[in-house]
Amino acid sequence: MQWILGWPLLILSLYLHDPYREQVLAAQTIVCTIIEEKRPFKIITMIYVALYFTQLSEKHHPINIIILHHVIMLCISIIQYTNPNYKVLCWTLIIWTSRWLGSVNIYAQPIRTTIKSIILAGLIQGNWGVRNEERDGLKWSWILFVHEIAWCVLPIQILYEVYYKNKQENRMISIV
Description:
mainly alpha; 9 helices
């Protein structure tokens, strides 16, 4: 069901212009409320909607703004692991920096965003230590916010997630 309703609307929203993009995103959020199960497209929908409302126009930025955005994304990703209590702060920073710096517009290049979304969905659905899609799945969403060159840290994050999951499972076995 989610593949028939959820993903096509999400991907379609990348290729449409307003007001149709907004209408498709609205339909997508309705689909998210109808499907009660935890699904990766719900996380990605939340990100798409947030970026839709924070990105009002396409801008070209100097390299220092783009570097600043990537530094902020790196710090936010690290904070998600070192102190998860600040995850709400991290997401607030992501939204505002994408609005203020305007260096991320997922709708400007729909093919790239489609590829990023497929990779993000695969990572969220993968067995990388994700215990709670809403909480842990957000740790992967930096993929949508950065240039593909930054993906070189994906193997590090995957290894950490697998190691952490195995460590937690071993701890549970030793307790029992």
